[in-house]
């Protein structure tokens, strides 16, 4: 997750910006397991640029982008955030640009100051970050793109008579489980969109230039980020992904697991296949949807949980899923004492965090930020108190060893519980087997039948593609 090195860095970040970035980098590395970047070659330090991204994860999104661009990024943020105590002062200190949204001001806004600030950044060879959907959201889709990014880019290019060479770099942010600790992220930088071309092509029609550039940006974002058109289809796509992953594993594909980029590519192909099936066989699609919905509802009724709108399922093995049952059993038996130690020492902050999540009930797109900030305070504070108690009772040396063991054992216990969930060795899984053995067996049969149906449809879909098309 190192910043992408541009060809010729332009401008040095301030000391405050560098300090904040170092802090955020440590927090991101702790919260997310893998942050994979593709298309990093599209970031050029010798060219003024606007990073235009989808916005699925609240403030986590700009924090993540700020880690991947070596230049200091001028973030465009809604003006209301600048009124938040402390946070607003930080935004002003790092050169963020306040944007007035019509929805926040009864349709009456004046962004001339924002455009002037953006022109200044871009004319100096700098980089701006903007989220052209206009708001954060929790959907696996790219909402309609607003015209702000195109207007800012065209305004700066026009002020320089087309000689500035501003580019809009589309960025797709794909959080495989956006709110889950130790999940993965895929950041996809797309081909830069040269703004001067649109200025030249629509020299007599400025509004036409804005519309054309906005449409181009929206298409690019939908190519880089997962885009499921209908919100109610997200659970279906997530479940189909889980079943297709099983099918691919049986065929010996993806040995050792998939990278975040490979997983998002697979989901995009599944979304394309789903659209194809809707077009060629709507009745079959409707029946498959009905069966998948019933399967998910039955999982939930048995206490096994339903598939959430996520690309990476929490029941997948951390080690890639290729370990034999004998190796897994040895891991579960031998690792039980260490896992118990980690669970015991993390139980208090974990339970308090769960309680606070239940009370605060943040929107799904804000849960990761809530967990990151609240979790850091809870775990850091309570682990610190536990260490003081242990050091007071057993001596400073033991206290140091105990403190060092806390994060390591906590991560091990998380891996242990993931492995246990994979093999249904959880209280909910055991209870479902004990109380509803027949229903659980029916559920397993239905899953196998769904896998068989999807395997047949997958073959149909691949057959109608060009012979050179990659497998799905």
Walkthrough of the structure:
With 472 residues, this protein is an alpha/beta fold. The protein has 3 domains: 210 residues, Glycerol-3-phosphate (1)-acyltransferase; 122 residues, no CATH class; 89 residues, no CATH class. The protein contains 16 helices and 8 strands. Strands 1, 2, 3, 4, 5, 6, 7 and 8 form an 8-stranded mixed beta sheet that branches. A hairpin with an 8-residue loop joins strand 6 and strand 7. The longest helix is centred in the C-terminal third of the chain and has 31 residues. It is globular, with a radius of gyration of 25 Å. The relative contact order is 0.10.
Given helix and strand content, the structural type is alpha/beta
**Proportion in helices:** 55-70%
Beta-strand content:
5-15%
Uncertain stretches: 4-10, 314-323
Largest β sheet strand count, sense and barrel closure: 8 strands, mixed
CATH architecture type of the largest domain:
3-Layer(aba) Sandwich
Per CATH, the class of the largest domain reads Alpha Beta
- Broad shape: globular
- The secondary-structure element order is HEEHEHEHEHEEEHHHHHHHHHHH
User: Total helix count?
Assistant: 16
The CATH topology of the largest domain turns out to be Glycerol-3-phosphate (1)-acyltransferase
CATH superfamily of the largest domain: Glycerol-3-phosphate (1)-acyltransferase
Supply the key terms.
472 residues; alpha/beta; Glycerol-3-phosphate (1)-acyltransferase; 8-stranded mixed beta sheet
């Amino acid at each position: 997750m190192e910043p992408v090195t541009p060809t010729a860095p332009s401008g040095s970040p301030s000391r405050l910006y560098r300090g904040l970035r170092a802090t955020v980098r440590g927090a991101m590395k702790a919260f997310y397991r893998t942050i994979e970047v593709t298309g990093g070659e599209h970031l050029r330090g010798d060219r003024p640029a606007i990073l235009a991204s989808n916005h699925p994860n609240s403030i986590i999104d700009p924090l993540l982008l700020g880690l991947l661009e070596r230049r200091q990024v001028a973030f465009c943020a809604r003006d209301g955030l600048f009124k938040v105590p402390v946070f607003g002062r930080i935004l002003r200190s790092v050169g963020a640009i306040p944007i007035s949204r019509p929805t926040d001001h009864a349709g009456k806004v004046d962004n001339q100051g924002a455009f002037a600030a953006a022109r200044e950044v871009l004319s100096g060879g700098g980089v701006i970050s903007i989220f052209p959907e206009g708001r954060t959201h929790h959907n696996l889709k790219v909402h309609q793109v607003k015209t702000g990014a195109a207007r800012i880019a065209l305004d700066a290019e026009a002020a320089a008579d087309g000689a500035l060479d501003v580019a809009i770099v589309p960025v797709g942010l794909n959080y495989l489980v956006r709110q889950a600790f130790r999940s993965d992220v895929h950041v996809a930088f797309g081909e830069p969109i040269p703004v001067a071309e649109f200025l030249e092509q629509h020299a007599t029609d400025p509004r036409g230039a804005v519309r054309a550039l906005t449409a181009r940006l929206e298409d690019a974002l939908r190519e880089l980020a997962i885009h499921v058109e209908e919100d109610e289809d997200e659970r279906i796509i997530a479940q189909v992904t889980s079943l297709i992953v099983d099918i691919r594993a049986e065929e010996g594909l993806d040995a050792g697991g998939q990278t975040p980029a490979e997983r998002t590519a697979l989901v995009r192909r599944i979304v394309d296949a789903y659209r194809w099936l809707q077009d060629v066989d709507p009745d079959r699609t409707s029946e498959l949807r009905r069966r998948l919905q019933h399967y998910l509802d039955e999982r939930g009724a048995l206490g096994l949980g339903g598939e959430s709108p996520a690309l990476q399922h929490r029941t997948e093995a951390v080690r890639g899923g290729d370990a034999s049952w004998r190796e897994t059993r040895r891991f579960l038996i031998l690792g039980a004492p260490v896992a118990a130690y980690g669970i015991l020492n993390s139980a208090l902050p974990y339970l308090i965090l769960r309680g606070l999540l239940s009370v605060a009930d943040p929107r799904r797109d804000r849960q990761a930020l809530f967990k990151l900030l609240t979790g850091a305070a809870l775990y850091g504070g309570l682990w610190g108190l536990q260490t003081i108690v242990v050091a007071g009772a057993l001596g400073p040396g033991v206290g140091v060893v105990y403190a060092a063991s806390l994060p390591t054992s906590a991560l091990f216990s998380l891996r242990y519980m993931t492995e246990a969930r994979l093999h249904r060795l959880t209280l909910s899984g055991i209870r479902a087997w004990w109380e509803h053995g027949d229903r659980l067996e029916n559920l397993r049969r239905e899953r196998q039948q769904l896998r068989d149906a999807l395997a047949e449809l997958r073959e149909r879909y691949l057959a109608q593609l060009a012979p050179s098309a990659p497998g799905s």
